[in-house]
Amino acid sequence: PYVNTKDILEKANKEYYAVAAFNINNLEFLQAIVEGGIEKKSPLIIETSEGAMKYAGMGDPLRGASLFVKMVREFADSLDIPIALHLDHGKNFNHIISAIKAGYSSVMIDASDKPLEENIKATKDIVRIAHAVGVSVEAELGKLAGIEDNVVSAESVLVNPDEAKYFVEETQVDFLAPAIGTSHGAFKFKGEAKLDYDRLKKVKELTNMPLVLHGASSVVQEMVEIAENYGADFGGSKGVPSDILKETVRLGINKVNTDTDLRMAFIAGLREFLHNNSKEFDPRKYMKTAKEYVKKVVSDRLELLGSANKA
Ligand SMILES: O=C(COP(=O)(O)O)N(O)CCCCOP(=O)(O)O
Ligand SMILES: [Ca+2]
Ligand code: NA
Ligand SMILES: [Zn+2]
After folding, report:
1. Do the Cβ atoms of 192 and 124 come closer than 8 Å?
2. Model pLDDT, residue 148
3. How far apart are CA 225 and CA 214, in angstroms?
4. Which residues in the chain come in under a pLDDT of 70?
5. How far apart are CA 305 and CA 15, in angstroms?
6. pLDDT for residue 60
7. ipTM of the shown complex
8. In this structure, which ligand is nearest to the CA of 215?
9. Which of 3.40.50.300, 3.20.20.70, 3.10.280.10, 3.90.1200.10 would CATH assign to domain 5-305?
10. Helical H segments across the chain, by residue range
11. Alpha carbon of 122 to ligand 3 centroid (Å)
12. Are 208 and 165 in contact (CB under 8 A)?
């Protein structure tokens, strides 16, 4: 069934597991994710960025949003596993309202690059509207390092746990993304991967609500190697190792945003297939390996996060 993200995350919060939130931009990634969810009997959170909405809507974010709602609902309405659709990193008020209007389960209002009081104001505005129509809301505190919407912040600004408590009380947001040292993309750490567990523990104790980890891809080496075998150059790529990811779940992370790992799996499969099949031009064939690899990464992650058999 098509559900509200909050229903999925409240259960995860109670039982201390996490649910992956997988980003999509097209049909093929959605198919692969759904197959993984069916295989693992796991709840699924499908998420799209504003860029994905514009991409699918050929420049029109509202058209893209309603296209994704229709695609995801088609799968959700016909399957036993709970599936939610979430707007990731909503920054533009009109785009966030478009997602709500189109029928998304939840939206993120990301004003984390603004001063606290501005972040609170922007979040309260969205919470008021979203809650009026049964849509749940995610917000972020602190800044991820690396690229985020072309905003390159050299260093990440980690969450202040006391601020988190105040923020949540003021905004009544449904789930919170505390920055604890991750960043988006495939190049997350120069040296050893390290997250601020202490801050995470404090935020959980002070808020007791479902928490979100952004920049949570592991950059699966198996996929990196396949892609590099067939011409990719992902030198220096490094993600969040599985053991560290598991520790964040143990400490209270319940939604794990995953985009890069699916992109790596897809491009690995695509490069491998195209290299070995010079005569093929049927998209149902040349994207098959790519979809299989995405499904594999999805299934492994659902298992790792503990949401398998929780549908
Ligand atoms: O936190 C994450 C995932 O982080 P990851 O890169 O570790 O997978 N996300 O929020 C996904 C970010 C998606 C990027 O969107 P656009 O390129 O469409 O703007
Ligand atoms: Ca942000
Ligand atoms: Na999000
Ligand atoms: Zn993110």
Report:
1. no
2. 57
3. 24
4. 146-156
5. 12
6. 98
7. 0.98
8. 1
9. 3.20.20.70
10. 5-15, 27-40, 50-56, 61-77, 93-102, 116-132, 161-171, 197-207, 221-229, 242-250, 260-276, 283-286, 288-305
11. 16
12. no
